[in-house]
């Protein structure tokens, strides 16, 4: 079998949620947007609901429908993108709460779905989504009279604890919301780690659940084992892969493994990335192809059937470093060609 196996430890996701929940007094929700950061939103949401999570967040209504099918009635499912044109049937049928971003969305929502749950998203400085202070003051009394399920905002620099933007956004959010009686939420994983001032009534971690930075104490969640298709000897002067970009200087052994950029192993990580053959770290050599990668296994005594790209020896964030990106992008790039195995709690 040439299919790589991605193993997702649902028990570790639940343990990470418990650890983040223990840091704050309010409710701890779970962000399962983008198919739970590529790991499978139905399975992940179900495991977390069994663990006690009551509120889930997705980016788009369509994602919320999948999570609702997995969870059945009961949990609150919130949509960061708010109420977009054409969303009303999805929001109604799957009972999703849009996080209203603008006056236009508010009008659309009360017109299409009067009395249907919603939240409010405020812009406290990131300038990405949400109502700005002036818009919010115009709408505030009307919106609050409709009892929003949540009033939220999002931090731009929470993964840098010393960054002045955190305090600035905290003060802005306070000015916009102090005294209201709707529940408030400001923080994702990074903000949860900034301490109680940032917690309000609910935190919304995503990446920390999936074992990524900035939650340094997270339990690892994913491992990826890639089958070795062939091993060959190379002599000095022989090249490996497209473009002859790597040339052997000494006699060696090259393994060709069964995964490539079509599986989210982004081509740019080629020059710096490694895989592990048992306990031996092996350099990726030559260009990463669509379905295949060359690995220098000269130092490997007994060649295993598979090599590890993610797992015990290499975290999502160390692989991200090799690719010049962040753990979020590694996870959400994981391809659809893998066999996915779930370890249950
Ligand atoms: C993605 C997202 C989160 C979760 O962020 P993490 O850094 O993954 O914890 C929370 N809130 C909003 C608005 C988001 O877009």
Question: Which features does this protein show?
Answer:
11 helices; 2 domains; 345 residues; binds pyridoxal-5'-phosphate; Lyase, Ornithine Decarboxylase, Chain A, domain 1; 8-stranded mixed sheet; alpha/beta
Write the layout of secondary structure elements.
Blueprint lengths: L4 E5 H12 L5 E2 L1 E2 L1 H5 L3 H11 L3 E4 L2 H11 L4 E4 L8 H6 L2 E5 L2 H10 L6 E3 L11 H13 L5 E2 L11 H14 L6 E4 L1 H5 L8 E2 L18 E13 L4 E2 L5 E2 L4 E6 L16 E4 L2 E6 L7 E4 L9 E5 L5 H8 L3 H7 L5 E5 L2
Parallel strand pairs: 1-19, 2-10, 3-4, 4-5, 5-6, 6-7, 7-8, 8-9, 9-10
Antiparallel strand pairs: 1-11, 11-14, 11-18, 12-13, 14-17, 15-16, 16-17
The structure holds pyridoxal-5'-phosphate.
Can you tell me about this structure?
By secondary structure, the protein is an alpha/beta fold. It has 2 domains: about 10-210, Alanine racemase (TIM Barrel, Alpha-Beta Barrel); about 220-345, Beta Barrel (Lyase, Ornithine Decarboxylase, Chain A, domain 1). The chain is built from 11 helices and 19 strands. It has helices at about 10-20, 35, 40-50, 60-70, 90-95, 105-110, 135-145, 165-175, 190-195, 315-325, 325-335; strands spanning about 5-10, 25-30, 30, 55-60, 75-80, 95-100, 120, 150, 185, 200-205, 220-235, 240, 245, 250-255, 275, 280-285, 295, 305-310, 340-345. The strands form 3 sheets. The protein has a 9-stranded parallel sheet. Strands 1, 11, 14, 15, 16, 17, 18 and 19 form an 8-stranded mixed sheet that branches. A hairpin with a 7-residue loop joins strand 16 and strand 17. Helix 1 (about 10-20) packs across helix 3 (about 40-50) and helix 10 (about 315-325) crosses helix 11. The mean pLDDT is about 95. Pyridoxal-5'-phosphate (PLP) binds near residues 31 and 80.
């Amino acid at each position: 079998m040439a299919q790589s196996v991605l193993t997702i430890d649902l028990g570790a996701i639940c343990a990470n949620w418990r650890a983040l929940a223990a840091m704050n007094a309010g409710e701890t929700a779970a962000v399962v947007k983008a198919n739970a950061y590529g790991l499978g939103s139905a399975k992940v949401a179900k495991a977390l609901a069994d663990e006690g999570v009551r509120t889930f967040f997705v980016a788009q209504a369509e994602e919320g429908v999948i999570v609702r099918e997995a969870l059945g009635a009961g949990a609150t499912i919130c949509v960061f993108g708010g109420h977009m044109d054409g969303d009303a049937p999805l929001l109604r049928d799957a009972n999703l709460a849009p996080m209203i971003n603008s006056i236009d969305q508010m009008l659309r929502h009360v017109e299409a779905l009067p009395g249907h749950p919603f939240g409010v998203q405020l812009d406290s400085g990131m300038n990405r989504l949400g109502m700005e202070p002036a818009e919010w003051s115009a709408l505030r009394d009307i919106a609050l009279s409709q009892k929003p399920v949540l009033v939220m905002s999002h931090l731009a620099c929470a993964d840098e604890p010393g960054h002045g933007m955190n305090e600035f956004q905290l003060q802005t959010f306070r000015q916009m919301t102090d005294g209201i009686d709707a529940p408030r939420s400001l923080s994702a994983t990074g903000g949860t780690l900034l301490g109680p001032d940032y917690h309000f009534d609910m935190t919304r971690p995503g990446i920390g659940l999936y074992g990524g930075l900035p939650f340094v104490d997270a339990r690892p969640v994913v491992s990826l084992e890639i089958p070795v298709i062939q091993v060959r000897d190379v002599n000095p002067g022989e090249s490996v892969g497209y473009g002859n970009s790597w040339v052997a200087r000494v006699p060696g052994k090259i393994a060709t493994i069964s995964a490539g950029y079509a599986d989210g192993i982004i081509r740019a990580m080629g020059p710096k990335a490694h895989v592990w053959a048992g306990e031996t770290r092996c350099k990726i050599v030559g260009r990463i192809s669509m379905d295949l990668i060359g690995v220098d296994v000269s130092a490997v005594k007994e060649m295993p059937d598979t090599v590890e790209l993610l797992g015990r020896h290499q975290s999502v964030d160390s692989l991200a470093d090799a690719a010049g990106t962040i753990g979020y992008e590694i996870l959400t790039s994981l391809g659809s060609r893998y066999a996915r195995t779930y370890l249950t709690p």
